[in-house]
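Q: My labmate handed me this sequence with no annotations at all. I'd like to see what the chain might look like in three dimensions before we decide whether it's worth expressing. Could you predict it?
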Amino acid sequence: MLKKQYRLKNKKAFDATYRVKNSFHKGGITLFAGLPKKDADSFTKVGFVVSKKTHKRAVKRNRLKRLMREAYRLTLKTGSTVNSQNYMSLIFIGGENALDKTFQEIQNIINNLIERL
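A: Here is what I predict for the chain of 117 residues:
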């Protein structure tokens, strides 16, 4: 589970990240990056979204969110998130194409998106 200090929670923070319009897409997952950090000591907040339009069943949506969250947590643990730590917030949005992917495929996609930052 992703620690509390890394979670993006309130609606204002999500809206501020979307407003920057800095996005990348690959394999059914879209990454929105917020503003660059001013203070290097603060944590990068991360949010994970799968809309109801993606799939009707909450079980499928929650599974995709869990897979994305775990893939990001593992990349954070290994320290390969150097590019992502330059931003205040990140939002990963899961689409229909990502629903049937395995954990390894999702992990590769998330790593690729972080490298593209």
